[in-house]
Design brief:
This protein is α+β, with helices and mostly antiparallel strands and about 150 residues long. About 15% of the residues lie in helices and about 30% in strands. The strands form two sheets. The chain has a six-stranded antiparallel sheet with strand order 5-4-8-1-2-7. Strand 4 and strand 5 form a beta hairpin. Helix 1 runs antiparallel to helix 2. The mean pLDDT is about 85.
């Protein structure tokens, strides 16, 4: 959410007169687990419009998969610490401070010993995957488009 807001604010400050809404910002907001969006009571009196939600609970578009621990620029492999299962062939995204989600497909996975694995199913498991762009420690891997 903060990344999307930061991008929108920076976009406005960069060109106040030519500022336009970028749909990628809303896509980013929709990616985060959230309750149904609404205007609250900004436009309506609560006694006249109760603003009842149509869908109870949270909308979860993308799962939080792992946190980056390191990146080896020579090999192009990043090491992650697992939070939710991911598998070979999945499309995932990496989000970094100041950047929106950057997608790629997991084409190879290795455990801590460097052995090929089909998935990272265990909580806090360290695994590495090739990433076609630089990843920094603390970046977050999440599930990609469904």
């Amino acid at each position: 959410v903060t990344n999307a807001y930061r991008a929108a604010i920076d976009g406005y400050l960069a060109d106040k007169d030519g500022y336009t809404f970028d749909p990628a910002w809303l896509t980013e907001l929709d990616s985060v687990s959230h309750r149904e969006y609404g205007t609250g009571y900004f436009f309506d009196d609560p006694s006249e419009n109760a603003q009842l939600c149509k869908n109870p609970g949270y909308v979860r578009e993308k799962a939080y998969i792992a946190v980056a621990e390191s990146y080896d620029a020579k090999t192009g492999y990043a090491t992650f610490i697992q939070r939710n299962k991911t598998s070979l062939g999945e499309t995932v995204e990496v989000i970094s401070p100041g950047k929106l989600g950057h997608a790629f497909t997991v084409t190879d996975m290795k455990n801590e010993k460097g052995e090929p694995i089909p998935s990272a199913p265990h909580p806090m498991m360290r695994f590495s995957v090739p990433v076609p762009f630089e990843v920094k420690a603390g970046d977050i891997m999440r599930s990609g488009d469904k």
